[in-house]
Write a structure and sequence with these properties.
single chain; mainly alpha; rod-shaped
């Protein structure tokens, strides 16, 4: 159950915010997500070994299971701690890097461009902090014939060339940074809670495995 939960959270975080990872300057968010994915896969393998160990009363399988659970314990703990630490730093990172990313990488880096367009539509926002940032963007300055004042994804009803008119009835005036920070912080808190919380479950699994190992050893000694 613990392995499935960790794997599920890892898949959820990677799939839900995968596009926005390109807007972050550090790999902490992605690292936390992939650590949980690894922990989930290893935990599921360990669960299969545990079933084999119990059904066959195999002490060797039980030892391998215990080792794998120890690995899961370490990986989950690392992911949980990293998530909580990064959650405290995320706003500071975004405030320093996101405005620069918007004005210098839009229409320069396709991955970043897609992420920004998706974010502005999904979060109903325009620019990192405020819509007027686009006036200083590389995208706008690189094409003197461009009539747009903001990308079309800033429009309340996106359509080709709708970004020509920057009236509040046509485009969003609020920036994306606070909404992105809230979403990432929420995901990091969930990852931290799952990572650290399920460590207790792994400790319980290790204790049970040790008890079962001792029981099987005593039975073997008694038999011989």
């Amino acid at each position: 159950v613990g392995g499935a939960a960790v794997l599920g959270v890892g898949i959820w975080t990677v799939s839900a915010k995968h596009d926005y990872v390109s807007l972050l300057r550090t790999i902490n968010y992605a690292t936390t997500s992939y650590l949980l994915l690894v922990a989930g896969v290893v935990a599921l393998v360990a669960a299969l070994l545990a079933c084999c160990a119990v059904l066959r009363e195999d002490r060797c399988c039980l030892l391998v299971y215990t080792f794998l659970v120890l690995v899961v314990l370490v990986v989950e703990g690392a992911a949980g701690v990293l998530a909580y630490v990064y959650e405290e730093q995320i706003m500071d990172e975004l405030s320093h890097t996101l405005p620069v990313t918007f004005v210098t990488h839009y229409q320069v880096d396709p991955t970043v461009t897609n992420a920004i367009d998706k974010m502005q539509v999904e979060y109903e926002c325009c620019g990192a902090v405020i819509f007027s940032e686009w006036r200083d963007s590389v995208w706008l300055k690189s094409d003197p014939e461009l009539n747009n004042t903001v990308p079309d994804s800033c429009c309340k009803t996106p359509s080709p060339y709708c970004g020509v008119r920057d009236h509040p009835s046509n485009i969003w005036y609020n920036g994306c940074i606070h909404r992105l920070e809230e979403e990432l912080a929420r995901h990091l808190l969930v990852m931290g809670a799952v990572g650290c919380g399920l460590c207790l479950l792994q400790v319980f699994g290790i204790l049970l495995a040790c008890c079962l190992y001792i029981r099987l050893r005593d039975l073997d000694d008694h038999y011989y």
